Amino acid sequence: MAVIEFIDYSMGFQAQDGSVHNLIDRLSMKVEEGRALGIVGESGCGKSMASLSVMRLLPHGAVVQGGQILFEGRDLLQLSEAKIGGIRGNKITMIFQEPMTALNPVLRVGFQIGEALRLHHPDMRRDEVERAVIEALDQVGIPQPRARIHQYPHEFSGGMRQRVMIAMAMINRPALLIADEPTTALDVTIQAQILDIMKQFKQSGGMVVVTHNLGVVAELCEEVVVMYAGCAVERGTVHAIFRHPRHPYTVGLMAAIPTLSSPKTPLKTIAGAVPAIMDFGVGCRFAQRCEHCQSICRTQRPPETWLDEAHVVQCWQACGAAKGDA
Amino acid sequence: MRRYLLGRAARSLLTIFISVTLTFFIVRAMPSNPVELLINPYMSQETQDMLMQKYGLDKPLAVQYALFLKGLLQGDLGVSFSSRQPVAQVLLQKLPWTLLLIAIVMALVLGIGIPTGLLAARRRGKLADQVINVLVTLGISIFIPFLSFMFLYIFSYLLKVLPTGGAYTPPKPHGLTYVLDVARHAILPAATLAITNLANVVLYTRNSTLDVLGEDYVRTARAKGASPKRAMRVHVLRNAMIPTVTVVGLQVGVMVGGAVVTETIFAWPGIGRMLFEAIGALDYPILQGGFLLLSVSVVTMNFITDMLVGWLDPRIRLGGGRP
Questions:
Q1: Residue A22: strand, helix, or coil
Q2: d(Cα B160, Cα A199) in Å, to the nearest integer?
Q3: Which residue segment(s) compose the domain that B34 sits in?
Q4: Helix, strand or coil, per DSSP, at residue B152
Q5: Are B228 and B280 contained in the same domain?
Q6: Is there a contact between A105 and B224 if contact means CB atoms under 8 Å apart?
Q7: Are B91 and B290 in contact (CB under 8 A)?
Q8: Could you tell me which residue, A251 or B56, shows the higher pLDDT?
Q9: pLDDT band, very low/low/confident/very high, at A324 (cuts 50, 70, 90)
Q10: Closest partner residue to A106 among B216, B225, B313, by Cβ?
């Protein structure tokens, strides 16, 4: 059974006048136990909103428009606030992008990690909590954890803080870990260390990695969803997507990665930017930037096309309908 | 930490010294002469000269200043021109009344201000927040003398429920009656003083709480499974209190000598009214003593505020060392 499964999940933002602008449009994806799913895409395409939807921690003004998010067979969207409170931070945990600001500056690191434990195990004794916290810090490779628990976040470097965040997220042995841009704010060498630590934890449960770094996906994930303007334009195994990208947006993303062997010509870029939420239009949301745009692309949303059992794409061209039009 | 404390003490002393010196010369720059107010014109010339001599007013300014500093070092603040009492004694009589007023005001300001600010932040943009915002704007912009007279008019004149002034009804009652009587007298001056401070505290608490609520670490706390209430109590409150504590701490220091208008209008026997009367009487020693007290209390409260903020926020623990 999948650890988490999105079924036609849609959400959007309510404007001042009460009308709702759709952002995530009928997103479907799932994560199997022991595997990691990467969600990639540019800023503003709904990656973070998808992960916050799982936690039911959407910001003010965000509204769920439909679909289901199944966790252990239950729809998270239907759970009471008390029930989701017991899952949040316990069975589903999250690591955030910015380790410098994600820890409370006025509380000791040991307290903040221990809090995750105490919130879900209120009857644990102080010394048990402390022992667990020290062990958790040790597991993420923080030296002298016994002394470190009494320190404050400003006494930790960025990489060390991200380790603290991981320790905090892993201390309850969650079934699902959501990492939202876990390495974006870190130095490259530190990034590699953090990825190594995250890989260790993959065996114990499912993982969702939100990133715009395809290297992180290749390193960590088995499956990948490419999101563009709230749509899962292409999804499948990492192998399928990296080797045989079919959606023009995925192709563009791949072409924009510099490699040592690439010729010394300017990197390919995708012209333009992600449209604002009000300007998505009725057709394919990538149409405005697409090199292969046909008339049907502007008027109708492309359906999901299964290329094989491990590769789905939302594109008129890929499903062949646009060919006659060309 | 010790080095920090020593440096801090040295700077505090310098501040107090400068303030005392400025006060000394400023009161003497006032365009009038205390001798004329002090001395009965029907006194003989000899008596006048004797009084001048007794208070050192016949000496050159520099000598007066030197004598004043010498007295100060020996703990002698001089003798009041008008009441002939030692200044220290006058201050000690007045200070408790001012401190009592400050204590009541602070209890009101913190007890009402912080919860109200938190409420406004939690209900951001909703009706409660809007009402609070209007009241805060009123509270900040109201003219204190107007407010005082309005209170007096309503509660003392129209409704006749509260006394117009003073700290107790003479003859001085005893026991519980005395406490209740003082409390009744303190209501109007305390309310007047509290209004502006209260508005400030509500504003600071609300705004800093809103800032903190948007911080990543609050989201982290929620993602750990903390309820909104717990996140507020454990993660928001302490961070949000930092600006409020700073403002209140500095305000308390100023209030020790600063409630001149309110204390005068309500005839409250504190430091503020003493200063007001001393200015009218050109009572140099009282003014000097009063402003010395003010500078000492401002410096002390600054120090206490820094300590409190350092305790709240480990990033700015003073003196570098770990606590």
A1: strand
A2: 78
A3: 16-73
A4: helix
A5: yes
A6: no
A7: yes
A8: A251
A9: very low
A10: B313
Q: Do A105 and B239 touch (CB under 8 A)?
A: yes
Domain ranges, ordered by start, for chain A: 2-91+172-314, 101-171
DSSP type of residue A177: E
Give the pLDDT band (50/70/90) at residue A326: very low
Asked if A94 and B313 come within 8 Å (Cβ–Cβ), the reply is no
For B223, nearest residue in chain A (alpha carbons): A89
CB pairs under 8 A between A and B: 72
Residues B22 and B110 in one domain: no
What is the Cα–Cα distance from B79 to B86, expressed in whole angstroms?
A: 4
Q: Does B69 lie in the same domain as B107?
A: no
Q: Identify whether residues B134 and B36 lie together within a single domain.
A: no
Domain assignment present for residue B321? The answer is no
Put simply, the answer to whether B216 touches A86 (Cβ < 8 Å) is no
Arithmetic mean of pLDDT, B46-58: 76
Q: What is the pTM of this model?
A: 0.80
Residues B224 and B260 in one domain: yes
| B9 domain-assigned | no
pLDDT-derived band at B323, boundaries 50, 70, 90? very low
**Residues in B touching A179 (Cβ below 8 Å):** none
| Sign of the alpha-carbon dihedral angle for B259, B265, B269, B274 | positive
Q: How far is B235 from chain A (nearest CA, A)?
A: 7
B273: left (phi over 0), alpha (psi -120 to 50) or beta: alpha
CATH code of the domain containing B305: 1.10.3720.10
d(CA A113, CA A145) in angstroms, rounded, equals 12
Report the residue from B220, B234, B315 with minimal CB separation from A102.
B220
Contact yes or no for A105 and B217 at CB 8 A: yes
CA of B242: which chain A residue's CA is closest? Answer: A106
Residue B85 lies in a domain: no
Q: Give the mutation candidate from A93, A97, A115, A162 for the B interface (greatest B CB count, under 10 A).
A: A115
**Nearest CA to CA, how far is B16 from chain A (Å)?**
33
Closest CB to B217 among A87, A89, A101: A101
Q: At what angle do helices A158-170 and B216-224 cross, to 10 degrees?
A: 20
Residue A101 is nearest to which of B216, B235, B312, comparing CB atoms? B216
Number of separate domains in chain B: 2
Nearest C-alpha in B relative to A86:
B225
pLDDT band at residue A9 under the 50/70/90 scheme: very high
Q: Residues B171, B278: one domain?
A: yes
Q: Are residues B106 and B187 in the same domain?
A: yes
Same domain, B208 and B106: yes
Question: Does B7 map to a domain?
Answer: no
**Chain A: residue whose CA lies nearest to B212:** A104
pLDDT at B56: 75
Confirm if A288 and A282 have CB atoms less than 8 A apart: no
Phi, psi of A41 (to 5 degrees): 160, 170
A145 to A91, A130, B167, B224: CA distances (angstroms)? 25, 10, 60, 21
Which residues from A are below 8 Å from B when comparing CB atoms? 55, 57, 85-90, 93-94, 96, 98, 101-107, 115-116, 119-120, 152, 154, 165, 168
Q: What is the pLDDT of residues A274-292, one digit of tens each?
A: 888 877 878 888 888 888 8
Yes or no: is domain A2-91+172-314 CATH 3.40.50.300? Answer: yes
What is the C-alpha R_g of chain A? 21
pLDDT of residue B258: 61
